């Protein structure tokens, strides 16, 4: 049953008001329609699918123009939810600094500075479009799910985490060089996007930022950009990276997998890789060394069992060269948050269901999905406060909002019937 906008839940209505200044009166109705449709729609989130779940006099062509042609700024929308995130997190950061000051031991000399760390996770995801031959920005990208190159769009984004709160940054469309040449737009590699994100990002005040990446982005250019801002970087390393054993510059470089082959059983120590389910056991070897084209690095090699084949081992690197192994593992495990984000983008909100031709429309649709994702995270925190000890997901938050809409819809129907509107008239209105 399609829901009228009058049935919006109070918390969603309050959140949407943050963005009213970015849209004209006519555009505002389309903005609300897309977000309400994304919450209510249980089918494919095409434009027609969204319209079938919202009872408003809005045309498919109008919604297409809203996304592709009308004048509004996706960047301004993204900045608004990021500003809201900062406003909510700043008191939490101040409270954490105060807690650390109270907990540190009393002793002579200058007290140790308190530190609150925020994590900036960078990654990309392929939106599979096997039949989208006329779509702008379409290219051939390697899909980790399909284990092959597929036709689709590459979404680059970042996720910011501070004090248990999560905030997605504005999504960006990566075009391959030949695609840019064909469409007449400037080319920016994924690494260019990662570096510009690090250079332009403004973290929450009084926090230290730690950037997390996968092996593809972990390179000298990103290391340098992170170092210029005084931040740290951790992430996967490819096994063909070369290091100096023991950090001795007089020794020749060896590949990481070659170094791992020289390790004895006693060189591996047990550690816990954290997860929502409580974590699992891993065996780790850590060495502070010099990695070619990266510099000083704490290298971690992990495997699930001591006797597991080295072909299954994973390699990690961090600028925290003096940190203990478990601390670095806890940091590395936080990168999984962006994988969860991409999973919710696709499975929960259908970010890859669009059938849009223009690149502008695609990025705007991605932006509105990200806007709703941030709201669901806000509401998730509220529900966790109301239900102590219970783990709440974005899906749980969405279902709670759907329940509010259903309740409001029934109350609206009751009000209409009590005012004298007949059942037949209501059915005709909802079918229109």
Span of the ends, CA to CA: 12 Å
For this structure, the quaternary state is: single chain
Strand element count: 13
Instruction: Give a short account of the largest sheet.
Output: 13 strands, mixed
N-to-C series of helices and strands: HHHHHEEEEEHHEHEEEHEEEEHHHHH
| Whole-number tally of structural domains | 3
Estimate the helix proportion, in percent: 40-55%
| Secondary structure tally, helices | 14
Sequence stretches where pLDDT stays below 50 over 5 or more residues: none
Q: Tell me, what's the shape?
A: globular
The proportion of strand residues reads 15-25%
Mean pLDDT: 93
Query: Which structural category do the helix and sheet elements fall into?
Result: alpha+beta
What do you see in this structure?
The chain has 432 residues and is of the alpha+beta class. The protein has three domains: 5-72 and 358-431, no CATH class; 74-102 and 113-232 and 326-353, no CATH class; 238-322, no CATH class. Helices cover 42% and strands 20% of the residues. The protein has helices at 10-16, 25-40, 47-51, 60-68, 74-103, 177-183, 190-200, 220-228, 256-261, 325-332, 336-348, 359-386, 394-418, 423-431, and strands at residues 117-128, 139-143, 148-162, 165-168, 172-174, 208-213, 232-237, 242-244, 254-255, 269-273, 280-291, 295-303, 314-318. Strands 1, 2, 3, 4, 5, 6, 7, 8, 9, 10, 11, 12 and 13 form a 13-stranded mixed sheet that branches. Strand 10 and strand 11 (280-291) form a beta hairpin. The protein is globular.
């Amino acid at each position: 049953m399609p829901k009228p906008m009058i049935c919006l839940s109070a918390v969603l209505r309050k959140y949407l008001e943050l963005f009213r200044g970015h849209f004209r009166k006519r555009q505002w109705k389309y903005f609300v329609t897309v977000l309400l449709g994304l919450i209510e729609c249980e089918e494919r989130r095409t434009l027609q699918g969204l319209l079938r779940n919202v009872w408003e006099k809005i045309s498919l062509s109008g919604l297409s123009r809203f996304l592709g042609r009308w004048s509004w700024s996706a960047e301004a929308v993204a900045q608004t939810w990021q500003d809201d995130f900062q406003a909510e997190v700043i008191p939490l950061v101040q409270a954490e600094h105060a807690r650390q000051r109270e907990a540190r031991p009393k002793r002579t000399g200058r007290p140790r500075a308190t530190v609150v760390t925020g994590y900036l996770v960078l990654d990309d995801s392929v939106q599979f479009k096997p039949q989208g031959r006329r779509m702008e920005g379409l290219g051939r990208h390697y899909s980790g799910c399909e284990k092959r190159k597929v036709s689709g769009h590459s979404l680059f984004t970042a996720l910011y985490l501070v004090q248990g709160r999560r905030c997605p940054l504005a999504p960006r469309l990566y075009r391959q060089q030949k695609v840019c040449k064909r469409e007449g737009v400037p080319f920016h590699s994924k690494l260019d996007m990662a570096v510009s994100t690090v250079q332009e990002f403004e973290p929450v005040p009084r926090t230290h930022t730690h950037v997390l990446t996968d092996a593809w982005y972990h390179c000298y250019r990103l290391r340098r950009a992170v170092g210029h801002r005084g931040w740290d970087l951790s992430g996967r390393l490819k096994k063909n990276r070369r290091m100096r054993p023991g950090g001795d510059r007089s020794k020749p470089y060896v590949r990481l997998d070659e170094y791992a082959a020289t390790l004895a059983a006693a060189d591996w120590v047990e550690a816990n890789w954290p997860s929502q389910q409580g974590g699992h056991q891993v065996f780790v070897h850590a060495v502070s060394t010099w990695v070619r084209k990266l510099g000083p690095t704490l290298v971690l090699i992990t495997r699930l069992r001591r006797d597991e084949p080295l072909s299954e081992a994973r390699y990690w690197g961090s600028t925290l060269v003096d940190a203990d192994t478990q601390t670095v593992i806890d940091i590395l495990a936080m990168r999984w948050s962006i994988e969860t984000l991409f999973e919710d983008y696709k499975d929960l909100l259908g970010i890859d269901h669009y059938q849009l031709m223009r690149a502008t429309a695609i990025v705007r649709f991605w932006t509105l999905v990200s806007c709703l994702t941030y709201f669901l995270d806000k509401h998730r925190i509220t529900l966790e406060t109301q239900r102590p000890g219970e783990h709440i997901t974005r899906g749980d938050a969405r279902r709670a909002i759907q329940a509010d809409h259903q309740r409001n819809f029934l109350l609206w129907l009751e009000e209409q019937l009590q005012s004298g509107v007949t059942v037949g008239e209501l059915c005709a209105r909802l079918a229109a």
